Hints:
seven-stranded mixed sheet
Amino acid sequence: xxxxxxxxxxxxxxxxxxxxxxxxxxxxxxxxxxxxxxxxxxxxxxxxxxxxxxxxxxxxxxxxxxxxxxxxxxxxxxxxxxxxxxxxxxxxxxxxxxxxxxxxxxxxxxxxxxxxxxxxxxxxx
Length: 125
């Protein structure tokens, strides 16, 4: 079964840093079509950072310059390094993946059909 296991969340004060990890298993891992999403209570799930099918990365405007998405193919692991955290970053963070994404860069669309249980990030002022 496809499994995505997030970790690294916690409570931090404003200005602090965290690094989230997501270990993927149960499918042929690809370095592409990977992303981090978050959802705060009462709000829609928000795209935070993406590694697209062509290898490009994109970030939500609210996190640009503060968050960095990366992955380590050999470990089937996706990361989100977060600096200068703000209270508005408080949310449950999920990693998402397209299990059908090939291991090659391309122009195909990503379908983020799977997500993990999430890891909570809480930022206090």
